[in-house]
Design a protein that fits this description.
3-stranded antiparallel β-sheet; 52% helix; mainly alpha; Glycosyltransferase
Length: 396
């Protein structure tokens, strides 16, 4: 005989299972529709691009896409996005455009002018190789890792981000954690072990010098190149030297989660969890989980948002969820779901044919420099697509 309590429990289990299936179906549809939208929207973007430049953002006042030369730090995101879309849609038009842009940026494999080779060459050629297994792409990634490693400075135990100038002696920025992915990958795919060694040393130095006790991050640490001592903690794109620039916090979360993937060193996992706790429990995190450009911006709730930081956080949390269990895991996944739903809504995602052909609206590049405020940004689109792929691959 089925008692009343047993029946209620059975119905409850059925209800939970039904809800889970319904949520999966909804997310599956959202992801499929988002990639179909991206396939069509990028065809708008590619229509009038110059033959030798890569898109960065859209100036609505001039109704004009803003493009940059191949050595700009963001030039890997557009081809990377195209490869992510091609992987899902198998659209030959998208693949052809991705290959065209790779030809433009290929000479960057020997570029040593800054630390951004990971963004430039792994988001692009890394995805191209993962999808096609073309050995020429792997060779380019290996050469790019060699160029990036040339910026390692033993005296500071880190990779120098920008060259010395009137502002800095030997600056290292939190963004640099992202470029370590390429070094780790090369070491674990037939390349020299030294690249992962550099990644580990850089990560440990950044862990020690970039973070405050609450696990928020400084943007820039400037070192004395001769002694290795810290000259100053500063910001370049945040509200103040002591504030928590939103995208900087996202770089750190993503970077240490990625370092755990490659090393399986629990200190990186624990560190990523603590950064996640700072971000997710921040009293200034909006309900839709798309952060303001800086968590300490003085004009919250009227401060500009940064969709790029939201997309980054979603992608990082979806990976972090793979390495955790229980309530912690559920919190990471549900927050990422909220972000993806927000970014897929009319509040953040452009209408087809608008926004210059970019996918997302409302990102902030460098507000203190009066640059790229409340605009689409190419890397916001990239990490949005990457997060959608991660959700599909890991949770559907």
């Amino acid at each position: 005989m089925i008692t009343k309590n047993v029946a209620v429990a059975a119905l409850s289990v059925m209800s939970v299972a039904s809800f889970a299936q319904s949520k999966k179906a909804m997310m599956k549809q959202l992801i499929q529709e988002s990639f179909q939208f991206a396939d069509q929207q990028f065809k708008v973007l590619m229509k009038d691009l110059p033959n030798d430049k890569v898109p960065q953002t859209y100036d609505a006042t001039k109704n004009k896409v803003v493009n940059y030369d191949r050595t700009w730090w963001c030039t890997g995101f557009y081809p990377g996005s195209l490869w992510l879309v091609y992987e899902q849609t198998k659209d030959p038009v998208i693949k052809k455009e991705a290959e065209r842009i790779l030809d433009i940026i290929e000479p960057n494999q020997t570029y040593t002018g800054n630390h951004d080779l990971g963004f430039m060459m792994f988001c692009s050629f890394g995805n191209a190789y993962r999808i096609t297994k073309d050995p020429k792409y792997k060779d380019i990634i290996f050469r790019s890792a060699e160029s990036l490693a040339s910026r390692y400075r033993p005296t500071i135990s880190a990779i120098q981000s920008w060259n010395k100038n009137k502002y800095w002696d030997c600056p290292v920025i939190i963004d640099n954690m992202m470029n370590l992915e390429m070094l780790n990958w090369v070491s674990q795919n037939g390349g020299d072990k030294k690249y992962q060694d550099i990644s580990v040393i850089h990560s440990n130095t950044t862990m020690k010098n970039h973070f405050r006790p609450d696990y928020s991050s400084y943007h820039v640490v400037d070192y004395d190149i001769n002694t290795g001592g810290i000259l100053k903690h500063k910001t370049w794109q945040g509200y103040s030297d002591e504030s928590a620039w939103a995208r900087g916090q996202a770089w750190g979360l993503y970077g240490y989660t990625m370092m755990y993937r490659f090393t399986k060193d629990s200190k990186y996992l624990d560190f990523a969890k603590n950064i996640a706790k700072y971000i997710l429990n921040n009293p200034n995190m909006p309900e839709d989980k798309i952060p303001y450009w800086d968590f300490n911006a003085p004009d919250i709730p009227n401060a500009p948002r940064d969709a790029s930081a939201g997309a980054l956080i979603a992608s990082a949390l979806l990976e972090l969820g793979q390495y955790t269990k229980g309530k912690e895991k559920n919190n990471y996944i549900s927050t990422a779901e909220t972000i993806l739903k927000s970014l897929s809504s009319p509040a953040y995602r452009a209408k087809l044919g608008e926004n210059g052909g970019f996918l997302l609206m409302h990102s902030t590049g460098a507000l203190p420099l009066k640059s790229e405020i409340d605009v689409p940004l190419v890397y916001a689109d990239y990490y949005f697509l990457e997060a959608l792929k991660r959700y599909k691959d890991c949770y559907l």
